[in-house]
TrEMBL record:
Species whose genome carries this gene: Trichlorobacter lovleyi (strain ATCC BAA-1151 / DSM 17278 / SZ) (Geobacter lovleyi)
UniProt keyword terms in alphabetical order: Membrane, Transmembrane, Transmembrane helix
All residue ranges annotated as the Major facilitator superfamily (MFS) profile domain in the record: 17-411
Transmembrane regions: 12-37, 57-77, 84-100, 106-131, 143-164, 176-196, 237-259, 271-289, 301-320, 326-345, 357-379, 385-406
Protein known as: Major facilitator superfamily MFS_1
A Pfam family matched in the record: MFS_4
Entries under InterPro entries matching the protein: MFS_4 (IPR010645), MFS_dom (IPR020846), MFS_trans_sf (IPR036259)
Coiled-coil stretches: none
Membrane as UniProt keyword: yes
Signal peptide, first to last residue: none
GO molecular function, one term: transmembrane transporter activity
GO cellular component, one term: plasma membrane
Amino acid sequence: MSNSTSHQSRFLHYGWVIVAVGVLVLFSCLGLARYAYTMLLPAMQTGLQLSYDRMGLIGTANFSGYLVAVVLSPWLLRRFRPRAVISAGLLLIALCMAGISQSRGFLTAALLYAFTGLGGGLANIPLMALVPCWFRSRVRGRAAGLIIGGNGLAIICAGYLIPLLNRQYAAAGWRLAWLLLAAITLLTALIAALWLRNTPAEKGLEPLGPLQPEQHGSLPVHHEQQGDGVLLLRLGLLYLAFGATFMVFGTFIVTSMVRESGFSEAQAGHYWSWVGFFSVFSGVGFGSLSDRIGRKQGLALVFLVQSTAYLLAGLKLGAIGLMLAIVLYGSAVFAIPAIMAAAVGDYLGTARAAASFATITIFFAVGQTIGPAVAGLLARSYGSFAPAYLCAAAITCSAALFSLVLPTPHRRDPA
């Protein structure tokens, strides 16, 4: 038995430290910087006198910044490595969220939120690319799912914290909320800089997880290269479908409950916190399931659950329908990124995981940039977000069918 293997068996593998820090990173870079915006929207709309379409455009500005980060990430990772890029992204988010707290109009908020999206991408993409480096195939889905649980914890936090601040500080509540979120993100940047590591080799370790016989039976190199472009396109289209739909619900469901269904902000926040609770388990649950049943079957199942959630919201079946939609949405919301992070390592190998994940994330970023903007325009035209939710259901149902025709991956972990 090698020294590194013996060390791993006696002590907690440092990969789980990477997971713990990753939870904090996702808690801040996406959970607070993006999903808390859903809770902040009603108060920001009143404070800045925003129309529905401008609310959507601020969300789109964030996603546009994220798209720029997707393009820049492969180059930055080659020059600076993941730990440095993640820490810098978190620092940028903290500064921009502090700036949003002082904004006085649409343009300032949109510009700063665009740079917040840039920081979010610079933190998230390198972090998820660390998963195939630190974990072999049998545990990748579980590891990625645990990390993504940080998003759910942030949603729970925002669901209770932001209404409390709004009640205590009235019109200034949303501004204080942005300042507090900025402080938390700044602390996370420091933790990431101190505790993240780029590869297991930096700690004298091997990736965590068992080697599998099929890892030695990969296809010949020319066949792999010939099919990889098409494979990335197929994974990218699925990620685009996810990006274009999940943030429509995630951005506007609280506003729908308050403006269209007569919920109080506190009630809507309480129900939104349910999303956070169930989403904590969405990534690890479906990620672990995909470790067992396969990535394509796992993707199809997640898309079907999401389709049901969007359909229930779009049909306006009352409070019970909305609550069921929220439970289903939360149960599956972060499963797709967890499975995708595992899938790129399975299909394309550890060495190419970072570049491959960045490539398919371009599709995701395009989807999430378009989705909220189109939803805002539909809401302005129809006076309701119901048509947008129904469109989202049709897209994810198609994605479920498309998932089932993906090929079965050949394991490419290094022996």
